[in-house]
Amino acid sequence: MKLLTLGLTLIMLLTTSCISEKKEKEPDTATDATAAFDYKVDQFADVKVLRYRIPGWEQLTLKEQKLVYYLTQAGLSGRDIMWDQNYRHNLSTRKALEQVYVNYDGDKTSEDWKAFETYLKRVWFSNGIHHHYSNDKIEPGFTSDYLKGLLDATGAVLEGEAFDVLFNDQDAKKVNQAKGIDNVALSAVNFYGVGVTNQDVIDYYAAKQSPDPDRPLSFGLNSQLVKENGQLKERVYKSGGLYGAAIDEIIKWLELARGVAENEAQGDALGLLIDYYKTGDLQTWDDYNVAWTKATEGNVDYINSFIEVYNDPLGYRGSYETIVQINDFDMSQKMKVLSDNAQWFEDNSTLMKEHKKKNVVGVTYKVVNVAGEAGDASPSTPIGVNLPNANWIRKEVGSKSVSLGNIINASNQVGSVGKLEEFAHDAEEIENHKQYFELADKLETALHEVIGHASGQLNPGVGETKKTLKNYASTLEEGRADLVALYYIYHPKLEELGLVDDWQGVGKASYDEYISNGLMKQLVRLQLGDDVEEAHMRNRQWISAWAFEKGQADNVIEKVTRDGKTYYNINDYDKLRELFGELLRETQRIKSEGDYAAAEALVEGYGVKVDQALHAEVLERNKQFKTAPYTGYVNPVLVPETDASGEITAIEVTHPESFVSQMLDYSRDYSFLPTVN
Description:
Elements: E1 2-3, H1 17-22, E2 29-31, E3 40-44, E4 47-50, H2 62-77, H3 79-86, H4 90-103, H5 111-126, H6 144-154, H7 160-164, H8 198-206, E5 223-228, E6 231-236, H9 244-259, H10 264-279, H11 282-294, E7 300-306, E8 320-327, H12 329-340, H13 342-347, E9 363-375, E10 384-387, H14 391-396, E11 399-404, H15 405-413, H16 418-423, H17 427-452, H18 465-468, H19 473-489, H20 493-496, H21 503-519, H22 535-550, E12 557-562, E13 565-570, H23 573-593, H24 596-606, H25 612-622, E14 630-633, E15 637-642, E16 648-656, H26 659-669
Helix pairs in contact: 2-9, 4-5, 4-6, 9-10, 10-11, 17-19, 17-21, 19-22, 19-23, 21-22, 22-23, 22-24
């Protein structure tokens, strides 16, 4: 599971000579040792792009640095997979648009060309033609005739449906989670072939039985489901299968990484991951996850493969994702206390007795510094991750939770108090936020990942949530983890454990921001008239809206109108905590019992629809701020130095000159798939 980027604040195919000929020199870079580090890279449309540093790099041995380098190369080698998973025409579209960008020598001062540049950057940022967050198809901002002219002028080719879809209403949503429709048929994501329906998917996997029902396999995680001659068939992602050319490159680099593993457990886990990529076998995937979860020693770790299922409207298929991470030596030691006390948090939660784990095992938490990301984690990245996702592994073996410290820090470097002052109810809230929220945010992330996702258990005989809760599974799980964090962020136990000096101040800062964001501030990410569709946005809204409604009798949260502006003021933090605990109990019951009707009522009743008058007001108030609502990152560039025999003797950390340069470099160096797969 992943926690998405801070409140408001996750290459390529081109092999034509035109790009390789124009990339004769190495990209301009600045070393990580530069005194005045420039975090800002670019801003366009609703996106800002930042750089991030890699603290602790110099503390690694050369062998550990090699491990990081090989793992980042493995991750980038599979980048095209994410593009193709997102939409069937993404690779051909990107190839054509990039060829235009590199070769066009016409008027580059016109509004049309500026719109083209912005569109290409948005496509790069989203790994395709659909918005990375809203799932809506990105509007070009120029006409089809203008694009035809650009294609003709540069010899680039984009024809038929791949061209037409940029300008028509076809495939309007990458993931369509609307109620009462065929979500599979009306989602453009490339997990399902033409003619496959919701019922097809449900029936197909209902017929599959795991060898051990208590340890169910993740059916559908690493395949595309298509119809051939009227029969359903899986195209498995593996060497020799779907995406095989890119997977072979991933395997090549993982083999090198295995050769410099820090310890036997880490090496064994990498070996199982390699076997999984070679075979596509889901039992091997589970064996790998068990081994990876147990491999907790060492300074380097990674996430790699088909993991999160948010992009599948029914929650079966995993998107390709990699994050390579280095231990944050200082913060991890401080935060280890949470994982050491996981059982206390479980025992003292509001869950029904039968839904509590009697033995919370293997929960490890680290603050890490990212060294490289790809696929679904880049350029838009999570700030926290808890894996593996299989409930039975969490129960029997445990999980790993990480907070991406240098990503959070980079975002904080370019933050502003302007929005805080605009949407906060009063001066007390503003001052409390300034004093406590940075720590509150880190702790809330840790509680979400370590305690939240590790908490609770399914009732005996209840199937996996992707089957029982279907299209509501992801938002219910993220909301459940949020509620655990919210319940404990305002609790004296945090001060008792030495994590905070003022548990009430920290908790109040967290509650103020959560309610304001869930009911108002996150609406800047939506177009006026849109419903809330993304899983994390939905869970923030249904939690906040439910708490607001249930607390009205006691005036727990007050809606205040002042000078034509809306504010939400928390009058009773203790009562709000009780409400969060009550909702946590019910959300866990829904998950534990597989109560689809209750999940639907909760999400549709509180998490989907938006107050249009309030939305219009929020958008108007937000116009004064120039900072984009979404943040993404370019990756550092690891440059190996070699001796005469080709042996790596050192690895330098550099940074790309621009977002554009990194995207084009990735297209040149990591394009291993054809445009049609």
